[in-house]
Amino acid sequence: MFEVLALLRMVVGFVLDSFLGDPFGRWHPVVWVGKAIEKLERLLFPQHRSFRKEFILGFVVVFLLVGGTGLAYGFLGWFMRKNLPLVYWMVEIYLVFSLLAFRSLWLSGKKVFLALQKGNLEEARKNLRSLVGRDTEHLAEWEVVRACVESLAENFNDAVVAPLFYASLFGGLGILIYKVVNTLDSMLGYRDFRYFFFGFASARLDDLLNFIPARLSALFLGIAALLLGKSPKRALTTAFQYARFHPSPNAGWPEAAMAGALGVRLGGVNYYQGKREERPFLGEALRELVPERIEEALSLLWLGSWFALLVLALFAWRVGYPIFGI
User: Fold this and answer.
1) Sequence-separated (6 or more) residues with CB below 8 Å from residue 162
2) Are 73 and 172 in contact (CB under 8 A)?
3) So what's the pLDDT on residue 313?
4) Which residues pair with 297 in a beta bridge?
5) pTM of the predicted model over 0.90
6) What SS3 state is found at 160?
7) Transmembrane residues, as ranges (predicted)?
8) Which residues are CB-contacts of 69 (< 8 A; sequence separation ≥ 6)?
9) By C-alpha distance, which of 270, 280, 293, 225 is closest to 248?
C-alpha cells in the first residue's frame, strides 16, 4: 500500500502542477527558503572581505540550511506518517506539486513563441526575461529563439527531471532538499567578485545533485525525439559529443540533446549586464533558428516531462521505496 501511495504522490503532484502551475505566494516553500538564505547571508557574510572566511562560511550556510531543513522535515514527516497519515500524504503531494515547475516553464516558453509568431520582437524579448539571466534588449529574432530553446532545455532538468528524480528516491524530503540546494545555487552560486568564495559550496553541491538527473534529461529528450519523429540518435550523440564543452558540468547534457533533436546549433555570444561572455557551440546548424524551433522544443519538453514522470514514478513504486522509502 505504501508503495502505491509513493507512486501516487508523484503522479498527483505532477498532474496538479500541469494544470494549475506554481502556487505562487507566501506559502510557497521556495519563498521561505529564499528568505532564509537572505537572512543567513546578512548574518554570516563577513563585513570585512576575507576570502578564507567567505569560503568557510559558505559551507556553514549550506550546512545550516540543508541540514536544518532535512532534520526539521525528516522529523515532522516521521511524526505525521505515524500519527496523521492523511495529513502526511497531503503535505507530500503539496511538496511535489509546489516544487515542480513544468507548467510555468512551458508557459514561459509559449509566451515567447506567441510573441514572435505575432511579429512582436519587443514583447518576445520582454517575455524572455522570465527564462534567462542574459541581456535581452537588443537580441535579434534568431538570438531570442536560441536563448529560449537553451533555457527550456536547461530548465527541463532543474524544473522537472531532477525534482522528480529526488522525489522518487526520498519523497517530499528529497524534492525539498533538492530545491533548497537549487535555490542556494541560484542566489549564491555566482562566479562574481562577491560570491566566488561564499557561493562555492552552494554551486558545487548543486552540481553534485544534478549529475545523474542531467544525464537522464538528455535520455528523456532523446526518447521524446523518437516519439515525435525526430532523430533520437542525433540527440544522444550530440549530447555525448558536445556536453563536455559547456562551462557547467551538467547543463550541457540537456542543451546538447535538445540541439541535436532540433538539428540546430546552440551557444555563442551572450551579454550579462553589458559584459560579453562566449559560450561554446553545441550541435550542428542543420536547420535555422526560427520561431518554429521554440514550438518544437516545447513539444519535446512536454513529452519528455510526461515520460520522465512515467519512468521515475514506476521507479519510486518498484525500486525507490524498498531502498530509500521515507
Assistant:
1) 178, 182, 209, 210, 213, 214, 217
2) yes
3) 94
4) none
5) yes
6) helix
7) 55-80, 86-106, 160-181, 297-317
8) 33, 176, 177, 180
9) 280
Show the cell assigned to 49. 572581505
SS3 of residue 278 by DSSP: strand
Q: Which of 309, 3, 296 is nearest to 148 (CA)?
A: 296
**Does the structure show a pLDDT above 60 at 5?**
yes
In terms of C-beta density within 10 A (0-12 exposed, 13-18 middle, 19 or more buried), how is residue 129 classed? Answer: middle
Q: Is the Cβ–Cβ distance between 106 and 298 less than 8 Å?
A: yes
Give the range of the structural domain holding residue 103, as residue numbers without chain letter: 2-324
Region 69-95: what's the mean pLDDT? 94
Helix (H) / strand (E) element for 257: namely helix 252-262
Cα–Cα distance between 310 and 303 in angstroms, integer? Answer: 11
Q: Which residue has the cell 535538445?
A: 258
> Look-up: residue for cell 550541435?
283
Domain count, the chain: 1
Per residue in 21-32, pLDDT tens?
A: 888 777 789 999
Residue with cell 516519439: 227
Residue 233 grid cell = 540518435
Band (237; pLDDT cuts 50, 70, 90): very high
